[in-house]
Amino acid sequence: MNFHNFNFGHFLCVIGGALWGWIEPTLPFALLCIFAVLLDCLSAWRLNRRVRQTYGKEACDGKLKSVHMKKMIGDLFMVFGCILIAQGVDQICLPGIQLYLGNMVAAIFLLTELVSILENESSCSDAKWAYVVQKVVADKTKRHLNIDIIKEDKK
Asked: CB burial class (10 A; 0-12, 13-18, 19+) of residue 70?
């Protein structure tokens, strides 16, 4: 190997192309996860508005705060990392078996976001569908009013 003709720019292009080849198939999953998180933020904002209208501004401090953005972005990066790892396992470790692990990781995250959206939309609502959903999911109104749910359930 002749090291005198080594071109660092070509080396970076090769590394960049390899990374892009690994990341590119996961972009639709990443975009779906971002969309789900944005919908969850919208539903949390709507819940916060309903709680303030129902119980008044002084009754709750509002759990929708900009400081929670850091956690949300960290969670998104963690999910993207898990999707990339799952895609790598699917392509490199188990190439003969099509398990679609990246799809499964994204689907699990999207289902948890869907449950969170349903919790937000059904909490502090008088609709019939919300009453039915509340039998299955948690009522987030208690969190907005700073009520300890565990102590409340024991009574």
From this structure: exposed
Q: Would you say residue 143 has pLDDT above 70?
A: no
Structure tokens at 13: 């292009």
Amino acid at 53: Q
- What is the DSSP secondary-structure string of 107-119? HHHHHHHHHHHHH
Closest to 43 in 3D by CA, of 149, 125, 148: 125
The whole-angstrom separation of Cα 87 and Cα 99 is 9
pLDDT in tens, 49-62: 888 888 777 666 65
Residue type, 134: Q
Helix axis angle, 27-55 relative to 101-122, nearest 10°? 10
Lowest-pLDDT range, 33-47, 49-63, 105-119?
Answer: 49-63
Cβ neighbours for 105, distance < 8 A, ≥ 6 positions apart = 29, 79, 82, 83, 86
Three-class DSSP category at 99? coil
Whole-number Cα distances in Å, 50 to 63, 100, 140, 144: 12, 40, 11, 11
